[in-house]
Amino acid sequence: MTEERGPEQNRSDASSGGATDPSPAGASGTPNATDASAAGAPAGQQARLTLRSGLNGAAVQRSFFEQVGGHETFRRLVEEFYRGVAEDPVLRPMYPEEDLGPASERLQLFLEQYWGGPMTYSERRGHPRLRMRHQPFPVTPDARDRWLACMRRAVDSLGLSPLHEATLWDYLERAAHAMVNAD
Questions:
Q1: Residue ranges per domain, the chain?
Q2: Gap between the Cα atoms of 7 and 115, Å rounded
Q3: Which residue, 55, 62, 56, 103, is CA-closest to 79?
Q4: CB atoms within 10 A of CB 97
Q5: Is 113 exposed, middle or buried (0-12, 13-18, 19+ CB in 10 A)?
Q6: What is the mean pLDDT of the chain?
Q7: Which fold has domain 65-179?
């Protein structure tokens, strides 16, 4: 059984690497992601949460990932982002691999998972632990700003609706600020 996780459950991942849902089970009348047993999931597995809306409780079917175009949209985002990284004299040396392909794949899988797509990132690499994974690299305010400039161009290239663009950009900005670990 897999768990659908949206931005509201994942936002703590970028800054703290912590728990996905700090609210107590049952606080909203439904079990949260940390209370699998209350949702009928076997011990050690997480429950699949179904969001419901409206008077009849119809299931909400489309994640942010699906709303913005799924895999293809995130592929284009990451491809455009790494085009900028490859040309940046501060960012490029921060990627130890000669080929940016593996880094590109990791970012795409992470973003797809974060926004409600396949859980492939965690299946392959475990918990994202963004701050821990970035700790070996000196992420200065200058590097953060350069990263954001590359990502801004990439986001703008997608032509998303204003709401989707603002939602995506808000997360990317907060995540970038959380990764700064050097002066």
A1: 1-61, 65-179
A2: 6
A3: 103
A4: 9
A5: buried
A6: 79
A7: Globin-like (1.10.490)
pLDDT band at 10 (very low <50, low <70, confident <90, very high): very low
List the single range of 1-5, 142-146, 161-165 with lowest mean pLDDT: 1-5
Residue bearing tokens 């409206």: 54
User: Do 45 and 33 meet the contact criterion of CB atoms below 8 Å apart?
Assistant: no
User: Closest by alpha carbon to 35, among 46, 27, 48?
Assistant: 46
What whole-number distance in Å separates Cα of residue 31 and Cα of residue 40? Answer: 10
Residue entry with tokens 């290239």: 157
Side-chain half-sphere of 168: how many Cα atoms within 13 Å?
Answer: 28
Q: In sequence order, what DSSP letters do the residues of 77-130 get, joined into one string?
A: HHHHHHHHHHH-TTTGGG--SSSSHHHHHHHHHHHHHHTTS--HHHHHH-S--H
Distance of CA 127 to the CA centre of its chain: 11
pTM for the predicted model, two decimal places: 0.69
pLDDT digits (tens, 9 = 90+) for 89-139: 999 999 988 899 999 999 999 999 999 999 999 999 999 999 999 999 999
At 78, list the tokens.
């990451």
Strands 58-59 and 52-53, how do they pair?
A: antiparallel
Percent of all residues in the chain with a pLDDT value above 70, rounded to a whole number = 67
